[in-house]
Amino acid sequence: MEKRVSFRGIWLPTALVLPQIIITAVFFFYPAGQAIWQSLYIPDPFGLSMQWVGLGNFEFLFADRFYRGSFITTAIFSILVTVVSMGVALYLAVLADRLIKGSGSYRTLLIWPYAVAPAVAGVLWLFMFNTRVGVITWYLGILGYDWNHVLNEQEAMALVVIASSWGRISYNFLFFIAGLQAIPKSVIEAAAIDGARFWTRFRTIVFPLLSPTTFFLLVVNIIYSFFETFGVIHTITSGGPQQATTILVYKVYSDGFVGQDLGSSAAQSVILLAVVSILTVIQFKFIERRVHY
Amino acid sequence: MKHSISCLAVAAVLGTASASSAATEINYWHAFTGRLGELVNEQVEAFNASQTGFVVNAFHKGNYSETLNAGIAAFRAGEQPHILMVFEVGTATMMAAKGAIRPVYEVMADAGVDFDQAKYIGAVKGYYTSPDGNMLSLPFNSSTPVLWVNRDLLRSSGIDPDTDLSTWEKVGAVLDQLKAAEVECPMTTAWQSWIHLENFSAYHDTPFATKDNGFGGTDTELVFNRPAQVAHIGAIGEWVQDGKFIYAGRRNEGGANFRAGDCALFTESSAGYAGISSAAEFDFGVGHLPYWESLVSEPQNTIIGGASLWVMAGHEEAEYSGVAAFLNFLSSVDIQSKWHQDTGYLPITSEAGENTRMMGFYEANPGTDIAVIQMTAKEPTANSKGLRLGSFDQIRGIIDEELEAVWSGDKSAQAALDSAVERGNALLRRFEAATR
Description:
heterodimer, A: mainly alpha, MetI-like fold, B: 436 residues, alpha/beta, D-Maltodextrin-Binding Protein, domain 2, 2 domains, six-stranded mixed β-sheet, 21 helices
């Protein structure tokens, strides 16, 4: 027997979804449309004049080998941020889920970093890894490792990945722990009685049952690493050294809001939007098949 | 500080209500916080107290880039301030925005204010004048790079602290000695593009870009990949490889290393004076920026960095006379002398410089006049008047990237500068198209 609520007429349902449609239109469709329109022009910063260039902004971007290079940088950065933040969060969630005493306070403490804005998180991590006064740099120095993210490209990438993942671990942790608690205890207990050890239970029961959460987080984290990380990059490396940490969204930000090159910035955000849409479609088409609801 | 900000906030909220005195309101957006913000507020309060016709409201709008963006966004919304502070690299952007700005010399003339452009220091105002020599904006805070020296560290390394550091050849020899004495950071710098390419070019009277460094038109091209610049960047690159020159970052990160006493030599703005004199627990000195003897027999002048005040278009005529009165007030001898002495920024008029000398400030604070002398000793040439390049903030970013490739040993100086020129020129062509 299926329960289904249906509305008679068109007005009530329209009125109910209208607020959402208006919000989406005002805050998404309108700006996105503006971006597409602006990407076809080279405007002057003050909006006094505009030069129609058709696809000229896109040609300019793809002719630039550094812009093409930043696709690879973005891919590396996104994969690392997603893997690190989800991996650590899952590990912590599994540990917190097994706790009997004090799990509430662990959970609360682990959620705190999520409240820290990306730019602030960037400053905190930058301070710890500061090449001169950073406490972690100092300990690494004792161990004989000379940390210098100002000139070393791999270290710079590592630092922005850590800073971007840190706050994200909290968010992922929250979802993982909720997902873990939704798994029926009876299934796990039955497996335990059958002699399955923790790792076997995790691999064959817990992880598959967690797959809807994992899939959701995968999509959300990739979008996060594509769009919301420019604050971290801006405060820590400004895209350097050389172009080692110039990800696509940072270039959108710096060209638009530092360089006042609105045409190029608009074209880049259109490209970014297309890339993320394609990625999301791919994820739903191919990865979702492996998800058990 | 807190107090004055809350006062300002209250004043801003009550702005419309308290305008009952019929004073015309002038909005002024600036980029200063901390001590500099307080000093700006003091100037504004002094102006407001000095007359009854106008009230200037000063608002802090973030750092230089954020202030410029706020001004641009406000103009698009028709809410622009009367006066906007714009850093020197935004000059070409503002100049190209005909219709959005009003040249300062015109504002002064229309308001009937006696405006003698000759009293402003040539090397300072030159950055902001039109090709026919009229001032488009009012220079506000200007500084120029100098060489800061940790005299204690030289002494403990067995080097005479008064040793001659006027040329890079001599600096190179001192760096060898410091390295031999196992000093961890013989030298560092702030603002690498500004000091080691832009000012380097002016100081050696060699062009940074064609068309008189962009003063002659937006069809300018970068040319800082010539032998002089390549030699200098190549030399620093070798020093970095040898551990004689420590690269700390793109902005003024090196300042922390110097102020902590880690570094012996430091190229930084003359406006670093306030920070260094308050934080340094060692005997420090300041000298002229070094030059290469092998390139020139004597150096030309250095160029400025900092910001100027632009007057935005689209307000009532009566309000512009208030703007003119305020800008005139800022240029007065007393205000300028105080600003120069409090901050280490250059005075914008020669009168203010002379006044400061007469007050005995330079004798009491040795080295504070180095920047003034370095800027004004010679009449600026086409190569040393300043730079006027569109998208210059981004071009500096490109230069930073390419210089990092030299410091890390990935590229030769020639290859890096060639690449920076090529990438920068692409941006200049876009700017040319945008402002055509």
